[in-house]
Amino acid sequence: MAFQKPSHTFTKIHLKALQTKSLYILFALSFTVFINTLSFAQELPKKQGTIPVEQERDSTSISLDSIAKQEVNITEIDSTKKDSIKQKGLLEGTVTYTATDYVSLSQKKKKIYLYNEAEVLYQDMEIKAGVIVIDYSKNLVYAGRLKDSTGYSQRPVFTQGENVIEPDSIIFNTESKKALVFNSRTEQQGFKVYSPITKKENDSVYFMKKGRFTTAEDEEDPEYQFVTTKMKLVPNKKVIVGPTYMEIYGVPTPIALPFAFFPMTKTQTSGLIVPSFGEDSNRGYNLQNGGYYFAISDYLDLAVLGDYYTNGSYGFSIESNYALRYKYSGNVSFRYENLLNEERGFPDFSQSTVYNLRWSHSQDSKANPNSRFSASVNLGSSTYFQESINQLNQSSFLNNTLASSVSYSKTFTGDPQVNLSLTATHSQNTNTGDINLTLPTVQASVGRIYPFAPKNGTKKGVIQNINFQLTTRGEYNIQTNDSIFGKSEMFDDAQIGMTHSIPVTTNFKVFDYFSVSANASLQENWTLKTISRYYDQASEEVITVNQNGFDRFLTYNVGASIGTTIYGMYDFENETKDAKIKAIRHVMRPSISYTISPAFDQYYETYDVIDADGTTTDQVEYSRFENSLYGAPGNTFSSSIGLSLSNNVEAKIRAKDSTQTESEKITLLNSFNFSTAYNIAADSLKWSPLRLTGGTQILNNKMSINFGMTLNPYALNSNNEVVNTFNINNGGSLFRLTSANASMSYTLSNDTFSGKRGANDDKKDTSAQESARSGGRTDDLFGRSENFANTRLSDQDNKGEEEEENNEFYNYKLPWSLRLAYTANYTNTQRQDQISSHSLMFSGDIDISPKWSVGASSGYDFVNDGFTYTQLRFERDLLSWRMNFSWIPFSDRSSWNFFIGIKSSLLKDLKYDKQKQSDQQL
Hints:
The protein has 922 residues and is mainly β. It is elongated. Mean pLDDT is 81; it is low at 1-20, 33-51, 58-90 and 792-810.
């Protein structure tokens, strides 16, 4: 209560006339007398003694039912005076604050002032700024920048949990956890957002007004950004924006959206897949690879994609990936296309349907060490890769074979160990359409048994090393064609068979330098189909009759081999101490083998060929097992000696580094092998052709060279048939070259000798995996599998390469890579004397600037004098964008594909993608 100065009262009195009323005065006096009469001064009067009232208890009892209840005396009590729950203070936690220059406390204003590199910590909230003011009376925290002659510095950084905001200033309420942020900048998974005014509703909701967002590296001067009137941001979950338009370097564009939704969860989410637009000269305009992605769980997903062409063609595909850690992983995809060429009613109109099924499954080795299941399936129409125009199939349309295998194996531990496997295989020739299936192959084997081996110690001698093994194999084989695949007719010629074999081997040393191995094999084959053959004199043709029923035949053979290893060393240091080549080592491994295979004539029969006069003109021998699964046993006795010699040549050279004391070892010849055989029991052509094979690696093992040739010692007659006359005795050389082949592969890059990983290796790896799934090459020599709209093959957000410190005007390092493949085959079996195939293929990429990359895959066929399949690739890094162009300039698959889009996976659907096939008439 404040006192008023007397001067104020006197001043007011003399300016106003005094007025009194007797009635008012009389009433006031009466009221005062009445109060004084009933009031006491200072002390209360003492209580007089009272006579207690005698209480009488009423014996009458009154029963109350559940409805009638006694009245409860309810007395209102102020809950603020006493509460069972302890009242919270102004702050729920401890506030920790620091500053570099000073910390000032104003008890009068109930504020704390922090200046220069100020920091406040409260629960999960952290604020760093140039200036911070804490108003603990209102539970508010103010944070702002420092201002000096150069401008502003120390922008506030607001962190709460995993969310980080960098505004110009902020007002935060420590009680409600709400905040008002000015000129905020935040980033969520590469999604950078700026807003002049932001309202933080709680820990997980932000409302922004007139915001801008981008994924550009430079958020101060982004090459592109989206401007929106309002935005709702839920960190790590979603971003919802209102009317939005796009700016490129500050210039508005007509690209606008009424609203947009961007999921930002760290886990996979379901959503639409925007299709790619293209044009085909035969099928018209099209939309490709559009559909929906289903994030079923953390272990399984599903993508349903579709294509549509304006001439009525369509296609759809289903792709799914699955994985369970430490258990298994795999993927499965199915694609179907109904292709219409040209328009209906035109003479060149045609229709075809193609499909392809791919499945890959691998089991973790730690899941079950005793059993394993794996699958690699690639089957479908023989013309699928040739007719499909999907970009992913560009490098696979030259495939000649589709192969599949699904297998399960189980190992039963013990002594001996038993192995069981179940395998289904598929092999398809895309040129002929022939398909070979085994559904399935069952194989069981018992581990090697050493009946005479000692219980302890090593095995020595012939007897102790004797071992045998039991193997059983059964197959259900189907040979069919693509035209009837999946129909009941494909099972008409199915074959069933089983084979049992017992190989017995032993090995021992002779004279300490020679290794001797002896072996014998017993094999029995079972079949359910045999044939019977006879000559029909009326129709003058041989008739073959299929016979169903169980039948078997038994074969056996014995053999032995002896071999040794010979080392040779030539030391050049004995002649010259400073010789570059220190020494050359030559390793030879000669081997001689002998094999006896009896003639099983008991399984052969004959039929007579009779002419019209009833005269027998010929007697033909055949076996009833000819068309069985494992064929017929041999009917010719063979006693053959095999000769082989393998060579390996290495050299020690002086180290390039003068500080190294040890010499470097290089390989001159990995292998150089000779092999032939001599059949003692043969009546003619006893010598088999001499086969030479070899290989080496040069240029720091970057170039692989392999070669081979076949030399026949026998001559040809005038009909180009091999006769039992040595070629040297026929006026020729010692051997006649019948065939030869050579191949070379070379891989080189600017990082080859530095040991670094190439800049584009990750992208090539994903492309190579896609080609391998389709059965294509993985070295880009037939082109690269590319679908620019599919980030699985082309996403380069994280290249992982270090920036080179190059001159601003001159880039002295140009990343590049080169892959070469050379093949040549020579044929002269019947005096053709021609090169059957001769080609050089290459694929390379080079970064002509830090942002430009070009590549090409092509080759030249020297036999046909023409270029092979050619693909040209261009790529431009546009900072936050990427641009790709792929061009096949010629061939019947000539086409081009252009793509430009944002790199970030959050905005990858903002793109322009167009494909066009060239007009074949032009």
